[in-house]
Structure formats: C-alpha cells, structure tokens
Specification:
single chain, alpha+beta, 434 Repressor (Amino-terminal Domain), 2 domains, 3-stranded antiparallel β-sheet, 7 helices, 3 strands, XRE family transcriptional regulator, Lambda_DNA-bd_dom_sf, Cro/C1-type_HTH, DNA binding
Length: about 160
C-alpha cells in the first residue's frame, strides 16, 4: 500500500491505495480500477451544505460515453463488475449481473427496451410484476431466453 498526503489551506487529508485491478492495455495506456480511501479533516467553518450545484450522474455518464474510448472502458468495467459479483450472488440481482455482463447501463437497456431507466431499476430490485412483452424485450436486448429473464427476476411460480 502507498500513501500520498496532500495539504492545503482548505483541508488536509491522506489518500491510501487499497487496491488496483488491471483492465488491460488501451493503446499507450494501461487501464484499471483504483480503490482508495480518502480521509479528510476540514475546519468546521468550511463545511457547508451543497444544494443544487451538482449534476445528475446520468448526465456525467452520458458525457463520458460520448468518447468511444471512455465508452469502451465503461463497458469493460461493467463486464468485469458482473464477473466479480458472480462470486457473491447477494451483491446484486441476477438480472443486474446479466445486464452488466453485456456492458450495458440501466439507461442503455431502457433505451433498447423502449422504457425508462427507473423502470429497469425497479425490475432489477424485483419491485414490479413483468408483462410478457417486457420479458420478451429484455430477453432480446440481453441475448437470452425468456425463461432466463423469468429466472433472473425471481418471478417464476411464486
């Protein structure tokens, strides 16, 4: 493990590398996932609530995916996440693992299935009963059978 310390008038903190997973080479670069812990200590007067100045995560991801290299990196990261989660079934739903194994975000799957991202999120959390058309669209989008979708959503003969 390595530590880098950064000090400024606004804050002092330590960032500790907890791990690195190499995703491979991309041209002149190596890509990977860096897991860090960042401890900060702020003067009380500098800590203020943050209202209305952020951007929705979907907007940030959309900007990143506009660059083909970043889009490919995000797809590889999603695929890797699904393979890591396969060892811990409780970490995410089977449908989420299926989606990630195809390198798709919830928004991308929603676009393919002609529905909303929020509906995909509800399906992945087993919060809705699926209709036959939705099952067919999911199966087609994910390249699996309707039976696999039913099994992945846990909706078979409850």
């Amino acid at each position: 493990m390595t530590e880098n310390t950064h000090t400024s008038p606004a804050f002092s903190g330590t960032m500790m590398t907890l791990g690195y997973h190499d995703l491979g080479q991309n041209g002149a670069f190596s890509e990977g996932l860096l897991i860090v812990a960042h401890h900060v200590r702020l003067p009380r007067e500098s800590v203020k609530a943050h209202f209305g100045k952020g951007r929705p995560i979907g907007s940030i991801v959309k900007d990143r995916e506009a660059d083909p290299a970043r889009r490919a990196a995000l797809q590889r990261a999603r695929k890797h996440l699904s393979s890591v989660a396969a060892d811990s079934p409780e970490a995410m739903s089977a449908l989420t693992r299926l989606r990630l194994s195809k390198g798709l975000s919830q928004s991308e799957l929603a676009d393919i299935c002609e529905t909303q991202q929020s509906y995909i999120a509800k399906i992945e959390k087993s919060k809705v009963d699926l209709r036959a058309g939705t099952i067919r669209r999911l199966a087609t989008a994910l390249g699996v059978s309707c039976d696999e979708i039913i099994e992945a959503t846990g909706k078979s003969d409850e």
